[in-house]
Design brief:
Layout: E1 2-7, H1 11-22, E2 26-32, H2 36-43, E3 50-52, H3 55-59, E4 66-69, H4 76-85, E5 89-93, H5 100-113, E6 117-120, H6 127-135, E7 142-150, H7 156-160, H8 176-179, H9 181-192, E8 197-204, E9 210-218, E10 223-229, E11 238-242, E12 245-249, E13 258-262, E14 267-271, H10 281-292, H11 297-323
Parallel strand pairs: 1-2, 1-4, 2-3, 4-5, 5-6, 7-10
Antiparallel strand pairs: 7-11, 8-9, 9-10, 11-12, 12-13, 13-14
């Protein structure tokens, strides 16, 4: 059994805990919050749970072996570092870290301490994502792709009122490309590899992070366009273009519908897609496979591929926001 600790008492932490418990491979051991009442409110539905209001006490809980971190983006690095030094595995909610330097340090530290680091990029662990990967033709048969994920954030109302909520703050490594665009970048890099060039045309908010923007990833033979935003809603499909037709996806962040339009035969094939009720259960199972079988060589190769993918996604995210002049406090370290 994997004994889980939680940092970050928001809705996404609840969703991950419920998914983890549903696998029957985890239990919830402890919850951290600066306020005891907040931690207790989070943990009350999960039975016998320990609570801590300072990280030193939290990381000293001996039977807790794995920490899920879903705090504001800028806090991930220091919290993950402390957890790893306490010999805990870490599952860090996307985007895991603000800069390539932070990413590299955590990967190296986890290897030194012989613990695991996972970035909780949910979409790449879904069966539907893997199914699309298996269906893709050779790269020389791909002409291009267009991925979209835009969703209006209720926190944007605070920006309109002159405030700076964490998710729209450069001090907390916020903005659209980091929050929603990361799913699009994961899809592109996961399916097509690291691009040769990355460009981002963003509309910055008064808080100095992006509210909406369009990115272009340039590969040898094709381009991928990414459209993301947190101050508007989009209802567009995502598409991948081939020599002989078009693959149409209802999204790349959570694929529930996929069909291939064959231009040559003028017909459309619907691809069978299976969707879990809790979209985090597949990543919870994937992480558990590694955590429960640390010496399995095949799983070890899979783990290293995930780590390298996280590293490459971080590189692309950094290149994109820097091309748009988005600077975080973390860049000054």
């Amino acid at each position: 059994m994997i004994h889980l600790g939680i940092i970050g008492t928001n809705w996404i932490s609840h969703q991950f805990v419920k998914a983890a418990l549903e696998t029957k491979r985890y239990d919830l051991a402890a919850v951290y919050s600066r306020k005891l009442e907040t931690a207790q409110q989070f943990g009350k539905e999960y039975g016998d749970v320990e609570y801590a209001t300072d990280l030193k006490t939290f990381f000293s809980i001996a039977h807790m072996d794995t920490i899920y971190i879903a705090s504001p983006n800028s806090l991930h690095f220091e919290q993950a570092k402390q957890a790893i030094l306490a010999k805990k595995n870490v599952i860090v909610e996307k985007p895991a870290f603000s800069t390539p330097e932070e990413m590299a340090e955590i990967i190296e530290l986890a290897n030194q301490q012989k613990v695991f680091f996972f970035e909780a990029a949910r979409n790449i662990h879904e069966k539907s994502f893997k199914k699309i990967a298996d269906l893709l033709p050779l790269k020389n048969q791909i002409i291009g792709a267009n991925f979209t994920y835009m969703k209006y954030s209720s926190r944007y109302d605070q920006v309109l009122d002159g405030q700076e909520p964490n998710i729209f703050s450069p001090h907390f490594s916020g903005g659209a490309i980091m929050d929603l665009g990361v799913y699009l970048v994961y899809a592109a890099v996961g399916w097509f590899g690291l691009p040769n060039e990355s460009h981002y045309f963003a509309r910055k908010l008064p808080t100095e992070v992006d509210g909406i923007g369009t990115a272009i990833l340039r590969y040898d033979l094709f381009d991928v366009t990414l459209q993301t935003g947190k101050n508007a809603d989009a209802f567009l499909d995502s598409e991948i273009y081939f020599d002989g037709g078009t693959l149409i996806l209802d999204s790349v962040n959570a694929i529930s519908r996929a069909e291939y339009h064959d231009r040559n035969h003028q017909e459309t094939d619907v691809i069978d897609i299976t969707v879990e009720e809790n979209p985090m259960i597949e990543e919870a199972h994937d992480f558990a496979d590694i955590l429960e079988n640390p010496n399995d060589k095949t799983l070890g190769v899979q783990y290293e591929e995930w780590v390298e993918l996280s590293r490459n996604v971080n590189k692309v995210l950094t290149a994109l926001r820097k091309s748009a002049g988005i600077v975080f406090d973390a860049d000054q370290k």
